[in-house]
Structures are given as structure tokens and as C-alpha cells.
Amino acid sequence: QVQLVESGGGLVQAGGSLRLSCAASGRAFGRFFMGWFRQAPGKEREFVAVLSWTGGGIGYADSVKGRFTISRDNTKNTVYLQMNSLKPEDTAVYYCNAVRDSDYPGRSAYSRGDFGSWGQGTQVTVSS
Q: Which residues contact 2 (CB under 8 A, 6 or more apart)?
């Protein structure tokens, strides 16, 4: 079982930046794709970004391309989401996700959010 703990959320003004972190732990943790999803009030959870164990296979939702950057430090079992030029519509609970490399279903299927382990989420609020 993999445990994921997100941190770094908060309140920021539009145009500002935040960096989210997700620390992974557990005896089962190894080579995993890791990603971020978000869920705004009254909306379904949506894909934000993903990258592979090697740091490749990076993908972003169109809504965050050019503003968000996903990265990871495997020595710390941690994945990051640097969020710049934040907009009020980025307001959501952000969730970390981990899927074992051997179970990664490809970007399209992965983006549905039906795979892997989840963290408890961290709230990001962007004021206008």
C-alpha cells in the first residue's frame, strides 16, 4: 500500500504562485507514475498533470499548460506541482495520485482518474 500526503495549498491572489508537494511512502512504493488531479466545488475531479518514474512521459491538461510544472525528486519520494499565474478558476482541492509503472494505462485512460492510490487532498483558493 502506498501512502500519499499532499501539502502546500493555501490562499493566493490571482496571478500569484504556489508549489504543492506530495510525499509518498509505504513498503510497496517503487517505480510509479505520479500525477495531480483537482476537484472544484460542484464539479467532477479532473486531470492536471502526470510524469513517469524517470521524469519523462509528462502531460498536462490544456487548462494549465504553460502555467503549471510537474516535477519529482525520487530521492525524497516526492512529486511537486509548481503553479504560476494562478486564476480563480484554479480554485479546487488538489489530489496526488500514484500508479505503479506496470499498471499505467496510458495518458488518455489515466486522465479519467480511475487508477492508483490517492492522497487526502490540499485546498488551493485563488482570489480575484
A: 24, 25, 26, 28, 29, 32, 98, 117
